[in-house]
Amino acid sequence: MKHDEAAATLAELGNRHRLAVFRYLVKAGPGGASVGEIQQALGIPLSTLSHHLSRMAHVGLIDQTRHGRAILCVPNYAHLAGLLAFLQQECCVGHGDMAASPALPVECDGD
Amino acid sequence: MKHDEAAATLAELGNRHRLAVFRYLVKAGPGGASVGEIQQALGIPLSTLSHHLSRMAHVGLIDQTRHGRAILCVPNYAHLAGLLAFLQQECCVGHGDMAASPALPVECDGD
DNA sequence: CCTATATTTCGATTAAACTAGAAATTACGG
DNA sequence: CCGTAATTTCTAGTTTAATCGAAATATAGG
């Protein structure tokens, strides 16, 4: 993941409502949840929620697919993994305590 | 780390300039860097940079201490570690690929 | 087709963020 | 004290985000 993409993703997660949505989707599991389910669970007005969801989808944090008349939202784990890898590689250099697992062979192009 | 604190921290990192500042400070090492050094390295106008730094300090991403007439900025690794732990615990539940190291015994109060 | 359901788009408002020059503050050295 | 260096605060303009009701769009089922 590149600098600007990481910043954009962080910015999307950096909102109370959107972070709550993402956490809810993760808890909902890989089956995801519909917009209406999210609305009921979190109590955010539909037009506002739709706006937030479209932003999250735009940066790749979630995927949306239509199922009948409902739209299913699913968290994009790979994208979050890319962000976490970026933060660990770019922001924890030299700080042993946080080097963390050498897992996640995610490439980290550019700068 | 709690939900709102995580969101606030993510929001601060979710800005091109502030993310660059944080990355620069991490690369600069535990000795940190002065505001002037950051300014020269990143080319951000001083008043703008000062504003960003104070925001980052406000959420605990960096620490600032005066040394003579310069002000040293140091990244707060523990805070970032708290954020990463939060994301891994709250946003990767059930997704094995990302469970990552069971390290970082960071408490995660409230909701 | 028609109705009900699910979600988005529109439109307008309010609030907050970003930007940066100019002026003020703080601190060192002579 | 005074000049200079380092940084912040002030101020103001521009841009972007957040909010949400109402109207519009899709889709399913009878």
Automatic annotation (TrEMBL), chains A, B:
InterPro entries per the UniProt record, alphabetical: ArsR-like_HTH (IPR011991), HTH_ArsR_DNA-bd_dom (IPR001845), Metal_resp_trans_reg (IPR051011), WH-like_DNA-bd_sf (IPR036388), WH_DNA-bd_sf (IPR036390)
Residue ranges constituting the HTH arsR-type domain according to the UniProt record: 1-95
GO molecular function: DNA binding; DNA-binding transcription factor activity
Keywords on record: DNA-binding, Transcription, Transcription regulation
A Pfam cross-reference name: HTH_20
Gene3D superfamilies per UniProt: Winged helix-like DNA-binding domain superfamily/Winged helix DNA-binding domain (1.10.10.10)
Protein name, entry field: Helix-turn-helix transcriptional regulator
